[in-house]
Design brief:
This protein is an alpha/beta fold. It has a single domain, classed as Aldolase class I (TIM Barrel), CATH 3.20.20.70. The chain contains 10 helices and 8 strands. 44% of the residues are buried.
Length: 313
């Protein structure tokens, strides 16, 4: 597509964010999950790898954000080590939280830890109705998610003057593009405030990526070609300059490096050349490298674009 439209290949700009997937264990097994995370997954980052991540972060002052994801990242035994060390370095830390994990055994003080550490919480809530959330994520997930959001609000998240950010994430129920982010954010804010007294800062809409568990569902329902055609036909070249892979490096639970979390799940190595956190002396060495692409990248470039931070244009 880039060649046909005489557009340049993708290369990495200065890196601003280090996204770390600390494992695939999760208390949920959502239908749309591109990680195929779940309660029975055992992959998790060890202390040695986590320490190397912090070493690389410390040597790269231009990398201002440590973005921690999973699975449910809080279930990794070294999650608090990563958060604490990054916080001590003065970096912003993002926890991509599924909300329900805050009520898992051993996680009783996790919400308080996040607040005390100034962690930005980016929370999954694919709709503001019980029926749609439970259909996608499992029984009673909506109820527990609302309880978790109330807990975070009580700790100061999304409260004026507290400096604790709470963003929500929406993704479509099936093979369609997300609606307009700004309008949907208004709907979320109205419904959650009026029905539950919940406040949040921003809503990010994310396109379902045609990989792993969601790809299996498309194949099962005979809708793979339909969905890929939708993405390709809505290719938007204006999204290219804002793609998250341009300013991000993704680290797998085993230390392998990737251009983004989606490439990581497909084991498509950084720039097409396999490397780990021990193979690079500095994150700045990765600036200017070509970014590996494949057909799933149409998910980030369709319509208004998609990233871990929401729409692009």
């Amino acid at each position: 597509m880039l060649a046909e439209r005489r557009l340049p290949e993708l290369y990495r700009d200065p890196i601003r964010s280090l996204q770390v997937n600390v494992g695939k264990r999760c208390d949920l097994a959502c239908h749309h999950c591109h990680v195929e995370a779940g309660p029975k997954r055992t992959e998790e980052m060890d202390r040695r790898t986590a320490a190397r991540v912090i070493e690389l972060l410390a040597e790269a002052p231009a990398v201002t954000t440590l973005d921690v994801t999973g699975g449910a990242p809080e279930l990794n035994p070294h999650f608090r080590f990563l958060v604490g060390e990054a916080h001590a370095l003065g970096r912003q830390v993002i926890d991509r939280c599924n909300l329900t994990v805050l009520f898992e055994p051993g996680q009783e003080d996790t919400a308080a830890f996040l607040a005390e550490s100034g962690v930005k919480v980016v929370a999954s809530l694919p709709c503001y109705t019980r029926e749609r959330v439970d259909a996608q994520r499992g029984r009673r997930v909506f109820e527990r998610s609302i309880e978790a959001l109330r807990l975070l609000n009580d700790l100061g998240y999304a409260r004026p003057g507290r400096g604790l950010e709470l963003d929500l994430v929406y993704n479509p129920q099936g093979p369609s593009l997300p609606p307009a982010q700004a309008q949907l954010e208004e709907d979320y804010r109205r419904e959650l405030r009026e029905l539950f007294g919940i406040e949040f800062d921003r809503l990010a809409t994310i396109t379902n990526m045609p990989i792993k568990r969601f790809a299996h569902a498309l194949k099962r329902d005979g809708r793979t070609s339909e969905y890929m055609s939708l993405l390709v036909n809505h290719f938007n070249p204006e999204t290219l300059s804002a793609l998250m892979c341009r300013a991000l490096v993704s680290v797998g639970w085993n230390g392998e490096l990737y251009d983004c979390d989606f490439n990581q799940m497909l084991e498509l190595p950084l720039g097409g050349r396999a490397r780990t956190v021990w193979d690079v002396g500095s994150l700045s060495d990765l600036q200017g490298e070509r970014i590996a692409t494949d057909s799933h990248c149409f998910g980030c470039t369709a319509g208004s674009g998609s990233s871990c931070g929401g729409t692009l244009v």
